[in-house]
Amino acid sequence: MRPLRIALFAPYDLARAGGVTTHIRAQARALRQLGHPVRIFGPASAPLDQGETALSRSVTVSFGGTESGLGLDPRSRSRVATLFKSEPFDIVHVHEPLVPLLPWFALRYAPSRIVATFHVHREHGHRWYPAVRPWLQSLIRRVDVRIAVSEAARRTVAAHFPGDYEIVPNAIDVDAFRAPRRRPPAIVAGTPHVLYVGRLEPRKGVDHVIRAMIDVQRDLPQARLIVVGDGPEREALVALARTTGAQVDFAGRVDDEELPAYVQASDVVCSPATGGESFGIVLLEAMACEKPIVASRIEGYETLVGDADCGTLVPAGDAHAIGAALVSLLGDGNLRRTFGAHGLQAARAYDWPVIARRLDAIYQRLLPE
């Protein structure tokens, strides 16, 4: 295996927490451990760490129930062109290449082999893709290998841009996530805790798990919900918890180093999203820590949780079903341990060293001997 100079392009604000951004940084670490020099490029609203470069300012856009920071600065065109003239790369790997504008410029100007990963899943198709398809078709043809993180993500993009796609799933550093951490002060030992991790936005369904806690507290009065994350719905969700009487602690945004402590200290991890999920990295994090899952029965979650037999799937948006599933798990330690063991076993297949070797094999075959 020879070292390759790799450029990873992020579609979303590198200075804001998010699943795709976390994925890209973890990918870079795993590839560096294989001996590859890796640089990360993307939009940013604040200074970045070493090895990461902002090529565009970040502009906040709301679409499909999600608020994202995109690289919409047209001046980034010249920055990308200059980058590729001054720095040689063997592989340019663009995440979400259909997101404007920075990923488009990467596709347009990259002189090396291009790999693209598609993360998004939409149950009813993507309204954006038909609008841009005629213009973007020529850019997509420049991609040497198309990757989707799940079959659901593949179907979403292939409906508008037919072609061959390889499935390379999201990943997690299992051993790093399992390394013992100090219990967060918000999670009191001996008290049943349900954990939610993610953005506070409508499609994530946090309001449903807050309402579910009313049912949970009838059977388990000491049970509490810990909400990790931030977003535009925070004030409304705090108000909902207050008016319903649900016992909810809002921990706010937690950095990647602190997050494992919350997962390890919880009893059940709940992911109540109503749609728009292609995979669910939070589910993998729960599985790595041997925590049982209660999740919506949506396409992005169903295969992972159902095949691994590591939790309970409930109808999306059904607070009473969520509550019943949580009560069942919180009251049955043996079931929690069984689901947890199944989850850890399944999570090993998504370990970053495993997935990084798959990516490396893709890169190596694109280049001459």
Instruction: Tell me the strand order in the biggest sheet.
Output: 3-2-1-6-7-8-9
Q: What is the CATH fold-level name of the largest domain?
A: Rossmann fold
- Overall pLDDT metric: 95
User: Residue share in helices?
Assistant: 40-55%
Identify the overall geometry.
Answer: globular
Taking all Cα atoms into account, the compactness measure Rg is 21 Å
How would you sum up the major sheet? 7 strands, parallel
The CATH superfamily title of the largest domain: Glycogen Phosphorylase B
- Indicate the CATH class of the largest domain: Alpha Beta
Protein structure class: alpha/beta
Helix count, per DSSP?
A: 14
Unreliable runs = none
Q: Tell me which CATH architecture of the largest domain applies here.
A: 3-Layer(aba) Sandwich
Count structural domains: 2
Total DSSP E strands: 15
What percentage of amino acids are in beta strands?
Answer: 15-25%
What is the N-to-C succession of helices and strands? Answer: EHEEEEHEHEHEHEHEHEHEHEHEHEHHH
Features:
single chain; 369 residues; alpha/beta; Rossmann fold; 2 domains; 7-stranded parallel sheet; 14 helices; 15 strands
Helix and strand layout, with pairings?
Elements: E1 6-9, H1 19-33, E2 38-44, E3 52-57, E4 59-63, E5 66-70, H2 76-86, E6 91-95, H3 102-109, E7 113-118, H4 128-140, E8 145-148, H5 151-158, E9 166-167, H6 174-178, E10 193-197, H7 206-219, E11 224-228, H8 234-244, E12 248-252, H9 259-265, E13 268-271, H10 281-288, E14 293-296, H11 299-308, E15 311-314, H12 319-330, H13 333-347, H14 352-366
Parallel strand pairs: 1-2, 1-6, 2-3, 6-7, 7-8, 8-9, 10-11, 10-13, 11-12, 13-14, 14-15
Antiparallel strand pairs: 4-5
Helix pairs in contact: 1-14, 2-3, 7-8, 7-12, 10-13
